[in-house]
Amino acid sequence: MASHAHDPAPVLDKDGVRLTVDDAIATVTLTNPDKRNAQSPALWRALTEAGRLLPGSVRVVVLRAEGKSFSAGLDRQAFTPEGFDGEPSFIDLARGGDAELDATITEYQEAFTWWRRSDILSVAAVQGHAIGAGFQLALACDLRVVAEDVQFAMRETSLGLVPDLTGTHPLVSLVGYARALEICATGRFVMAEEAVNTGLANLAVPADQLDGAVRDLASAVLAAPRDAVIETKALLQGARHRDYEAQRAAERAAQARRLRDLAGLGE
What we know:
By secondary structure, this protein is of the alpha/beta class. The protein has ten helices and ten strands.
C-alpha cells in the first residue's frame, strides 16, 4: 500500500510506528515493510504511546501497514539468546520470577488494549500475512477490512507458546470456541473468504481498494453522532457479559441518557 503524500505531519514516528491525525480520524501505520512489519517490544511501546497521544477530537482510528504484509508476527530475534538490544531476552524472562514475567507481559499487552476504548472506533486494514502477534493486533481492533490476499494465522501454539497479546478473547467472540481452538491448535491460514464468512472480517476487497474501503467505512461511522456511537459501542461490548434482562436494562439506561442529551437535559 502506497503512503499518502497528503498525510499531515506525524504526531509520532518511531520504532516502526507512525501516528498521524486528520481531524476526527487518526491513522496508525506500521512502517517497516522490509521486515514485513515484524513486532518487537520497542514497537509495542510505540503503539502504546500512540494510544496515549490521541487527541480528544479523534473518533476513528485506522490501523494499517506499509508493504505487502500487515505483520509477519514477532521478530524472530526475540527467540535468540541475545534477544533485542537493551531488552530482556525471552530466555532471561523465563529465568525471572512469576511477578516479573507477569509485569513484562502486561506491559506488552498494553499495545493491544487501547483500541477497544469506548470513545473511539478502531478499524484494521489488513493485507497479506497477519501472523501471530500480527493476527492479534488485527484482532485488537473493533472492525477488520481485509484485502483478498490476506492470510491470518495464529502460530504461537506451533512454537510451543500460547497467544498472549489479548487475541484469544476477541477470536472466541468472533468465530466461536471450536473454530478458535482449531485455528490456534493447527496454526493454519485463514483466508479472506473464510474470514468474512466467520465474522473475523467485516469486508474483503481487492488489495488496491483497501485504503478506499476503510476510508468509506470511517466516513460512514463519522456520519452518526459521536455520543450515540460511543453509547452503542459500550452497550454491545457489555452484551456478552450480561444476561438478556441485564442487557435490556442497559439499553433503557443508555437510551435515557441519549434522550436527555438530545432534549438538552443532560448533566
